[in-house]
Design a protein that fits this description.
The structure is a single chain. By secondary structure, the protein is of the alpha/beta class. The chain has helices spanning 32-44, 60-69, 115-129, 146-162, 177-185, 208-215, 246-261, 266-272, 290-301, 306-314, and strands spanning 3-5, 12-14, 16-19, 49-51, 78-83, 85-89, 107-111, 134-140, 166-173, 190-194, 218-222, 238-239, 242-243, 280-286. Strands 3-4-5-8-9-10-11-14 form an 8-stranded parallel beta barrel, surrounded by 5 helices. It is globular. The two termini are 17 Å apart.
Length: 328
């Protein structure tokens, strides 16, 4: 699988990245054997970039990912995790489903973008992963913590990168405005943008992607299915974590109809779309089973003809200024 360097760093990622929130029991439980098979399937498909975070399953995702990768040659793959939320023990009981994860609520999340918080978070992630280094570290969802993220957390990551503790640094969010500020005002290597560069939402094209391309920064795109609507457009489908509005559902159904006329699954079209922009280094796809991983890899390998992209433009489903991958 093709690999691209992140910015000017020595870290490179495969064009498809494995998102490990699912194996941290996102929404529903996944047993340890199934989690291991998902990571094995990613490896067999040629994926060598794996993304996790303390937030995912209160550390369960990091623990399972580290265990599943432990026997793999460390120099062959990269792992990214995130800072900004510390996990602190609690005796409250119950489950963590209110935060989206089917795990016991043994810990609570504490926002912390201080320099000490960054270091502590990384040490705890290293312990859970069982690794001696982390390749990529993202500031995780600093939307409401901009001051601390830019003033203390980012400079600390820069120091850690200079010390060789981490290989590349960035920020991961569901919005483009602050990510654009990171690209313009800091020396990040990469930003992770979720849900804002898809067949239904190209807001990252307004500033973020052009700025990244102009400054030699890389962008990893997540959320290409917009929470599921572009995987299976139907009444009641989810779009950006809520029920899809009718006009958005109608647009997704029109996209699906065009794709099917060319005998291409809508999922394949959604997965291929971000690669049309030169700043995009990888597409991050979450998976909770080996079948889901294999499906994503097969969709990526599936040709998307140039005529399909042309018809989307003709139907008004893609603006003329939105770049698309070369048809095959």
């Amino acid at each position: 699988m093709r690999r691209l360097a992140l910015g000017t760093s020595a870290v490179s990622v495969t064009e498809l990245s494995f998102g490990a929130a699912g194996i941290g029991n996102l929404f529903t439980p996944v047993d340890v054997a199934q989690a291991g098979r998902a990571v094995d399937a990613a490896w067999d498909a040629g994926i060598r970039a794996f993304d996790t975070a303390p937030h995912y399953g209160l550390g369960l995702s990091e623990e399972r990912l580290g265990a599943a990768l432990r026997t793999r040659p460390r120099h062959e793959y990269v792992v990214s995790t995130k800072v900004g939320r510390l996990l602190r023990p609690t005796t409250g009981g119950g489950s963590d489903l209110a935060n989206g994860f089917a795990v016991p609520a043994t810990h609570r999340r504490v926002w912390d973008f201080s320099a000490d918080g960054v270091r502590v978070s990384l040490l705890e992630s290293l312990r859970r992963l069982g690794h001696d280094r982390i390749d990529i570290v993202y500031l995780h969802d600093p939307d409401d913590h901009a001051g601390a993220a830019f003033r203390t957390a980012y400079p600390e990551l820069e120091r850690l990168r200079a010390e060789g503790v981490i290989g590349a640094i960035g920020a991961g969010m569901n919005q483009t405005e602050m990510l654009t500020r990171f690209v313009r005002d800091t020396d990040v290597d990469v930003v992770l943008c979720a849900g804002r560069y898809t067949l239904l939402d190209q807001s990252a094209l307004t500033e973020l992607l052009p700025e990244a391309a102009a400054r030699g920064k890389s962008v990893v795109i997540g959320g290409v299915f917009n929470s599921g609507l572009l995987a299976d457009p139907r009444p009641g489908a989810t779009y950006d974590y809520a029920t899809a509005p009718q006009e958005v559902l109608d647009r997704a159904l029109r996209l699906q109809a065009v794709a099917e006329r060319h005998q291409v699954p809508l999922r394949a079209l959604a997965l291929h779309f971000p690669y049309g922009h030169p700043a995009v280094a990888s597409v991050l796809v979450g998976a909770r089973s080996g079948n889901e991983v294999r499906d994503a890899a097969e969709l990526l390998a599936r040709p998307v003809p140039a005529d399909l992209w042309a018809e989307l433009r003709a139907e008004g489903l893609l603006p003329d200024d939105v770049p698309v991958p070369e048809g095959t």
